[in-house]
Amino acid sequence: MNTSILTTLAATGFTVAFLHAALPTHWLPFVLVARARGWRERKTMGVALAAGLGHVALTSLLGLVVALLGFALDEHFGQIFKWVAGGLLLAVGLYFAVQQFRGAGLRHHHVPGSHHHASEQCGKEESESHLEHELRESPVVTDKSSDWAAISGLLVMLTLSPCEAFLPVYLSGVEFGWTGFFVLSGILAAGTLGGMTIFTWLTLRGLKRFDLKRFERYEAGMLATVFCGLGLMMMFIEHGHGHAH
């Protein structure tokens, strides 16, 4: 097994997971609900961590499906598989590149119950990203009925919105068998939970957030670069077969 390739893959996976966790849908709802309800920091962080675990669990389950499919394809195609997988990763990267050039951004998870449309944003505060606006309108934040309703809403919102951007990373780890799957699942958890807790905590502490509008504008381009690089690595770097499946 080429451990340097697996290390590079793990670092790439961490980057994808952390970038995804930096989206305000992964931490801003907890801050808004905590402020609206007067939650203590410990409670807020606990709810964020629980929601993050659900988010990671569903993504890992989908990753397992991708890995099993990849194992079957690898057995069938052998050496051709790296070209197939690399080509798919390049296609994902090109899709993100097209989204970037079109200025369309990514297809973000919409917050349950929000009715935000692009036309409504005209005249809104320029410094507020559309995701922030959508979050502020969500019943998860505005419903004052009970803590349990707010907590369950936050848990469902994150758990049922897996990190689709990480699934191609699972495909690139197929040649490393189950070792690759478990390493990448650990990286997914570290990047996602680390990002969520860091941004939630910093925002609770009142630290001025980075420019979310700018991050949203270039997020697709960053992921395009990551996946195109990953695809080229899959195709042109000799991996060696260290299967354990």
Low-confidence stretches: 114-127
Strand content: under 5%
Principal-axis shape: elongated
Cα Rg = 19 Å
What value does the average pLDDT take? Answer: 79
The arrangement of helices and strands along the chain is HHHHHHHHHH
- Domain module tally: 1
Helix content: over 70%
Our measurement of the CA-to-CA distance between the termini, rounded to an integer number of angstroms, reads 13 Å
- Strands, count: 0
Main beta sheet: strand number and arrangement?
none
Number of helices: 10
How would you describe this protein?
The longest helix has about 35 residues, at about 40-75. About 70% of the residues lie in helices and about 0% in strands. Helix 3 packs parallel to helix 7 (about 145-160), helix 3 packs antiparallel against helix 9 (about 175-205) and helix 4 packs antiparallel against helix 10. The two termini are about 15 Å apart. It has helices at about 5-20, 30-35, 40-75, 80-100, 130-135, 140, 145-160, 165-170, 175-205, 210-235. The chain has one domain (about 5-110, about 145-235). Residues about 115-125 have low confidence and may be disordered. It is built from ten helices and no strands. The chain is elongated and about 55 Å long. It has about 240 residues and is mostly helical.
What is the secondary structure topology, with strand pairs?
Elements: H1 3-21, H2 28-37, H3 41-77, H4 81-102, H5 130-137, H6 139-142, H7 147-159, H8 167-172, H9 177-204, H10 212-236
Helix pairs in contact: 1-9, 1-10, 3-7, 3-9, 4-10
